[in-house]
Predict the structure.
Amino acid sequence: MAGVLVIAAAPEGALSRSSLELVGGARVLDAALGGGVAAGLLGGAGAPGAAVETLHRHGVPVVYRVHHPALGVGQSDALLTAALAVCEQAQPALVLVAGDTVGREVAPRLAYRLGAGLLTDCVALGADGGAVVAKRQAYGGRAVATHVVRRRPAVLSVKPRSLDAAEPAPIAGRVVDVAVTIESAALPTRVKQVQAEKAELGLEDAQIVVGGGRGLGGPGGFTLLQDLAVALGAAIGSSRPPADAGWVPISWQIGQTGKTIRPALYVAVGISGATQHVAGMAGSRTIVAINRDPEAPIFGVAHLGIVGDYREVVPALIAKVRELKGR
Amino acid sequence: MDLHWLRAAGVVLLLAVAGTIVTRKLLRVYHLIRLGTGPVPLERLSLRVRDVAVQVLGHQRVLRRPFAGFLHLVIFWGFLVLLTTIVQAFGEAFVAGWTLPVIGGSPALALLQDIFIVLVLGSVAAALWWRAIARPPRLAGQEQAGAYLILGLISGIMVTLLVSRGAQIVLEAPPWAAGAVVSRRLAGWIAGAPEPVVRGIWEVAWWGHLGIILFFLTWIPEGKHLHLITLVPNVLLRKARPRGALAPVDIERAERLGASAATHFTWKDNLDAFACMECGRCVEVCPANMTGKELDPRRLHTGLREQLVLAGAEAAAPQDPADMGSRLATPPLVGGVFSEAFLWQCLTCGACVEECPATNDHIDKIVEMRRHLVMEEARLPDTMGDALRSLEARGHPFRGAGLSRTAWTAGLDVPVLSGSVPPERRAEWLLWVGCASALNERNHAPLRALVRLLREASLEVAILGDEEACTGDPARRMGNEYLFQTYAQQNIDTLRRAGVEKVITTCPHCYNTIKNEYPQFGGRYDVWHHTQLLARLLDEGRLRPQAPLGSVITFHDPCYLGRHNGEYDAPRRVLGAIPGARTVEMERCREKGFCCGAGGGLYWMEDRVGDRVNHVRTDHATETGADVVATACPFCLLMLEDGKAARGATIRPLDVAELLGQSVQSSGVQLGPRDRG
Amino acid sequence: MDIIVCLKQVVDPELPLREFVIDPATHRQVRAGRPLVLSTYDENALEVALQLKDRSGAKVTALTLAPQATIGDAVRLALAMGADEAVIVDDPRSPDLPGAAKARILAAAIRRIGRYDLILCGCESADWVERVVAPLLAEELGAACVTFVSRVESPDGALVVRRQSEDGFHLIEARLPAVLSITSDETNRPRLPKVKDIVAAKRKPLQAWPAADLAVAAGDTTADGVEVRDVAAPEHTARCEMLRGEPAEQVALLAERLRGLKLL
C-alpha cells in the first residue's frame, strides 16, 4: 500500500478543474511522503483520451481507467463500485476525492468499505513526518481545524477550489484498464434525470454573495452587479431599498426581514450598512464594502473597504476576477 | 270623557305593541351579547360612573370633532330636555290636565323646551348638510338609508311636537305659553282657524308625535342607533385592566386559543360591536388605513356584529339540509370576514381605541384573532415567524444581531445585578435594557447617555446582563401568548431572585409589559420610563442642563408611552428644560400621535402595501421644519432613522436622553452632523 | 412508512462572535451556558419527514444522540412540530464524538427501533460540518444513500428525490430503505408548532436509552487514526482595511487579498 490515488473525473472528455486541483494536492503529498501519484479515471460514455493526456502532462504516471456505461453523471453507487475496483488494483495509501455532489456521497462510503480513515472537505493538505496534515473549516466557517491523519489507507475529500491546480510537469505515463462488473438494475440508486438550472444560486447557501443597495441608483446598477456575480460565481442579493423600489425581486432582500446569509465572502456595493441589513449578513466570513461615502456605517462592519464610485470600481473588479480565473 | 278613555286605550295599545317589538329585539341583542364569555367588571364603580358622565353627558370624545360633535351634543341634550314633553304627553293621556310636578307648568321650562326644539331642528338640518353635501369620507362607510331615516324621524318628532304645542296653546292657553316663544309663533299662525280644525291639528300632531316616537323606539335596535341603549353600559362596564395590557389566557385549561368565530369573543367584545355607532373616526386615525392598507377598525365591529347576528340566526333556525349551502357560504371570521392581511396590518397603536366615542377596544379583538392564527394554526407572516423562532431559541427576536446584551456598556462599567450581591450593596434601580436597545447599535447612545445622566445625579443603576430575556411583548402582540408567558415567567423569576423592586427602562414596550402585564403573573414592580425619571431629576434640580442646544425639536410620541400609558408630558418637560432648544409640535401629536410603524410586532413585517408608515411619519416631522425629531423609544428611533434614510431627509432622529446628555455635559456642543449622545 | 429523523443539538450558530470560544482541551466549541438549538438542516429534514407524514400518513420518530442532561427543548420541539415519538441515546461523550462514531451509535439505535423505511438527516451539521453521518449510516445499515436532497418528489411507489448539484439538480430514484441527507429548499421551510401541539408534545412518548445499552458494532470507524491537532478561530479584527488608490489599484489589492483567502 503506497502512494496517493486521485479519483478524477472527465465530464465530456476534458479533465475537470477539480481533478487538476486534486493532482496538485497529490503531488504535494507525494513530495513529502513518497509512494508515487496515480489517478483513477472513472468514465462512462466517450473516449477519455484527452483526460489521460492531461493527467500525464501534469505529472501523473499511472492512470487506472474504468470504462462502463453505468458510470454516468451523478451515478454515485456505480462510481463507488468503480472506485473500489481501482483501489483494489492500485492499493494506495491515500485516496483524494473531490468534495463535489458525487464526491461527498462516495468518499465516506469508499472509506468505510476500504476500512480506511476519512477526512472530508479539506481545504489544505500538507505533511508532517509521516502523517498527513490537513485543514478543514468548522463552525460555519468561524474556525479552522487542523487534523493529523496517520491511518493508512485514508480517504480525503477536498473542497473544490481550495487547492491550487497542478502545474504542468509532463511525465511518461501508462494506462491500466480496470474491469468492473456493475449491474445497473441492481444499483440502490439511479439517476433518472440531470437538470441544469440557470436559476439563481440560492442566496442562503451560496458561498459568495454580491449585494447591491440604494447607491446603485436604479435597476441598471444591478446589471453590472450581475456581471460581477457571474464572474465570482456568486449569488446576488440586495438591501431593502432596491427591493422596495422594485429594482430587484423581493426574494433578493437580505436583512432582518429578508434572508440571513453567512457566506465565505459578501461584497456590498452601494449599501450604506443600516442595522437591519447588517443583521442579515453580519455572519459573513469576509465582508468587502464598496461605497462612495467614507462614513457609511458599512465600513464599520466590513473587513475590506473601497471608497469609490461603483461604476468605476466594479468593472475593474470584474476584469480582474476574469483575468485571475482565466489562468 | 269618552275621548279620554279612547286616548288612554290608544296609548296603551301603541305602547304595548312598540314595547313588545322593542323588548323582543333588545332581548335578541342581549342573547347575542351573552354568546360571549367573561366576568362583569364592577370594581371602582365611582370612576366608572364618572366616565359615563364625562363621555355620555359631557360628550368628551365626541366633541373632538367640534362641528359634528356639537350637532350631536345638541340633539342629545335636546332629547334629554324634551323627554319632559314626552312624559308630559303620556301623563296627559291618562290624567287630564296632568303636568310634571314642580316644573310642570312653568314658562321657563317651556322656553327651554322651545329653544331645544329649534336647536335640534337646526342641528338636524346641519347634519343633513354634513351627510349629503359636505360628505366627510368617514361617513361613507355607513348605511346611508338608515341614517337619513333617523334624521327624518327626529325632524318628525320635533315638528309634530311644535305643532301640537302650538295647537295646545290655541286651544287651552296653558300657563307655560308665556315662555314658549316659538310654539306661540306657530300658534299665532293657526289661531285663525275654526276650533275643530285646530283640535284636529292637535290630535294629528299629538298622535303623530307619539307614533313617531314609538316607531323610533322600535327602530333603535336596528343598526348603529342601538348605541342609544348600549352606550351607557358599554362605558360603565369597560375592562378593568390598564390600557396597555392585553388579557391573559390560561393556556393549559383553555379549550381553544384565540377567536376564530364570532361566538368566541367575550360578552364585552360583543357589546362593543352593538355599541359601535359606525362613526368612522377610528378609521380616520388608523395609521395603517391612512397609508393605504386594508385594515379598517370600524369594520372590526360592524363585521363582528353582522357575524353575531348570523350566528344567532343559525342557532335559532332549524337544521334544514336545504340550508346547508347558504350556511357553508358564510365566510369564516378569520381569513374570510377579516382577511389575514387585515389582521396583520394592525400596529396596536391604540389610535382607534383613543378616538372611539363608544370607548370600544379594537386591539383586544385583533389580538384574539391573531392568537387563533398563531397558536392554533401556526400561520403568520414568514418574517414574524422568524422573529418568534429566534425569540424561542435565543431569547430575543432580533435575528442576525451580532451583539451581546452587554456590548453597549463598553467602558461604562455598569454593574450586573445578581442574587449573589448582598441587598445593601445592590443598586437601587434596575435598568431594564430591552432587546431593541441592547442588540441594535443605534440605541446604544441613548442608553449610555442615560447612564451618564443618572450618574451625574448620583443615581446608580445595575443591569441583568445576559440574564435579561425579552419581555415577550412582541410575542404577545403577535398573538403567541404561550411564548409570551414563558418569558414573562422566566423574567419574573429572574427579577425575584435578584430582589428587584424599582425598574427604569428606555423602552416603552418593556415599560408597558413589565408595569401593566407582569402583575398578571405575580410580578409587581415600581416601573419608570427614563423620561419620567429624568423629568423628576430635573424638577429636583439634580440635573442641570447648562449647554444650550440651538435646535428646533419636534417630539414624536411613542404609542406605548403616550396613548397606552398616558405619558405625554415627561419627555416634553425634559426637552423644555434644555436651554436654547425650541420645540414645535407635529399636527398629530400626543393623543393623536401617529405610530412609527413598528408596533404590534410589525417591526418584523415588511410594509409593502401602500406607503410605509414610518416614511409618512418622517414626513410629518420634516413638515414642521424642525432640525431634530426627538423620541423616547428604541423602536421609534430605528424606524425614524430608516424613514430619514429613505426620504433623504436632513432631520436628525435622537432620543430625549441623548439631547439632554448633550446639554448636561460640561462643554456645550452644538449638534453637528455626526454627533451622538 | 416509517421514518426516522436524526436530530442534533448544536450551539446557536448565530451566537455573537464574542461568545464563540474553542476549548483547547477538547478542540471543540465551549457549549456551557450557550443556547442550544436544532442544527439548521436537521430542521429541514424534520420538515420533509412531517410533510411525508401529512401526505401519506408515515410515522415519524425523532432520534437524537446527546447527553440527556443537555437535551433541552430541541426534542420536545420536534415532537411539537409533529413527530410521533422521540428516542434519545444518552451518551455523555457525544458532543465531542466524530461523525463516524456517531453514525455507528445511531445505526445501533436505529436497529433497535427496528422499523425504518427512510432515515433523514441534515446534509451537514451547523457546528462540525463533516457531512459524513448520512453516507456512513447508509453503509452501517446497508441502505441506499442520497445526499443533499432538496425535495422528495414522489414518496408513493418508488422513492424519487431531487439532489442538489453544482449547476442544478439530479432526479434520483432510490430503493428503500434509504438514508437521505436533506438540504434547505423553499419547499421545506420548517413549520412553526401550534401551541396545542406544544402542550400535547409533553405527553408524547420519549425514550432515553443509555448508549452503553446499545449493541454498537465493534471495530474501527473511519474516524480512527484521524486526530484533531488544533481548532483555531481566526482573530477577529474590528478594523476595516481600507484599500487606497485609484480604482485599478484598489481592485488589484482586493483581488490579492481575496486570493490569499482562497476566495478567488
